[in-house]
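Most newcomers find our protein records easier to grasp once they have seen one. Sequence and backbone structure share a record, each on its own labelled line. Nothing more is needed to start thinking about how sequence determines fold. As an example, a complete record with its sequence and its structure tokens follows.
=====
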Amino acid sequence: MSPESESYTNSTLPMLHNSETTLNDVDDTTAIGDHHVCKLDHSFSQSELDHFKNRPSNINALRSDFVHLHGMKSHPNKCHDHLDPRSHDESKEGLHFRLIRADTEESRKIVVVVPSIDLDRAELVRLCDSIDFYEERQLYHLILANDPSVRIIYLSSNLVDEKVVRYYLHLGLRHDKTHSTEETLCEMHKMLSRIMMIYVPSSKCIPLSEKIIKSNQMVEFLKGLICSFFNGCGEKRTKNPYVGLSVFTGSDLIDNLSKEILGIRVLEASGDQLHYGTKQGSREVFAACGLKFPKGTPYLPADNDLLSYGTKKYGDNDSFWSDNHLYIRSARELSIGIARQIALGVKPKKWMIKLNQGFSGEFSNHQTHSFSAHTCALPKGKGNASIDLHEVQSNTLSIPEMAILIEQALPSMKFEDPKMNWCDDDKNVGFSTQIERLGVIAEQFIEGEVPTSPSVQAVIEPTDNRVSIISTHEQLLDGQVYHGCINPADSAYRSKIMEMGLKVGKYMAARGVVGHFSVDFIANHSRDGSFDVSAVEVNLRQGGTTHPHAMMALLCGGCICSDGLFRTHDGEPRTYIATDMHYTAKLKGYNEGDLVDAIECKNNPLANKIRWNKVEGIGVTFHLFKFVKKYGRIGFTAIGRTKEEVQALHDATVRFLEDVGEHKQGVPEE
């Protein structure tokens, strides 16, 4: 059993290992066979317990050291499911509720959520310290359980705290002033009956998708669970078109899990399409779409001679999808490409050197930026590393001569990640090795007095390849590290980036790409007072801006309009500030469940001020609770009608978290 499982089962919730246990013997957690079912509603009957061991799969063979199930069953009261037309609103663009919508409202839809961080193995090892905590960005899917026709199967590398699950479900409860407390609880229990949380721990630093694939028992259990959610359908029904696999990013592993193993469709780009989301692939897409983007290398087709396929392995027989693409894969070729650009007159103050794939998560315990809805300046350029080649650029040298000097200077460039070095060390693979493995580009650093980093987020529908813009943002970055965002982007260039994002989406859709993507830009003031906008990269996956937009769309209802503003069904505007990385020093060591208690405490004036208000459709929602105890960090999204309102909510949330940290010895009792 994993350490996390032990810490959970050794709490006040006793583990019982006799499947014949009666309900009177059960507190909050019980075990059927050798797997664990954690009940969250204190209302299981013996027949409901028996239901778990009678599912159409070999559940009793599951070992407790690789799966922990949250069995969420409905309240025994006579509550009848009803179809709320608001649950089927087609305006919730980009949400998987819509992506797997059936032809009739009565058809059942299943979303299998696998929030696996599928990166190159060496990158995973470098980032392994708590990177799987980011899986909790996908918990917004639980709100979809307010639709009686939807079933959610959520898998995770970490045990999701019971109170965090309930927090999301409570957010998703439909507000009705006529509902009594008993009726509200009844609705909560009906939502619980529509979800299954599966915990898949492992001591190895491997993605969640690989953990699942390596367990034949888990795979068979998932197949049976999908069938049971379709009321005992036959084996062929596992390929039902209304079953979708929602993931953070596509990969070869995800393709194998969805197509070959489970026989269901994945709702994001496939592994063989990920090239479009690389740094080099982004440049190729921008060139094909006629968009402005930074000058650099590879400059195709002139630099085709610098490209090669991948052969550098990490570990035993470990390959990666990038091996099958032509990239710059050595310091020598990179240096030649930069030298060619210098010879063409490209002489920036510094060059940005970027690996083709990376992850901008960051866990250090330093204070984050103070967010403002009115200012979005970038502290420094975005990239993996930077280098000043002024001396090379100022001399009259041939391309081979410049290339030699550049190659000599590369090991001393400045890396964004403090863990990164040029050469391999005892703990991590070096940048030079990753160049061979993932490929690399070099781009001019775009200068400007006050550059901003807007982005546009969109989705390509898997049913008809239609491209829908779903949000725009001002990204809040520290170098390449994403800290948060402000919605919407500045009106001075909002329409422009939406148009550019649409072009990118149509280009990829024509090549079979589906799912979420975003495009990052750099915007600078021009001499005539307008903004000069350059496309920087395509992110072909769900990202940091996906969760806050999904929360607003699900909780408020509505959609983005032609002017780029989100409006509810009543025509009211909504905007937000979101962060993944707010740091409060005194929150370190605080239990995530206790933080949920503090948020929901009615006796705390600060909590009352920021708590999500279902009637008004404004307030603050929290996410990434897993980071609280170890790092003192928490994510939150302040949603309101104006920038001033969301800024006030953001500032009040900062004060609330500081107050909670001051009193973390005990949460006030109601």
Observations:
- The chain is about 30% helix and 20% strand.
- The first helix runs from residue 3 to 9.
- The first strand starts at residue 29 and ends at 32.
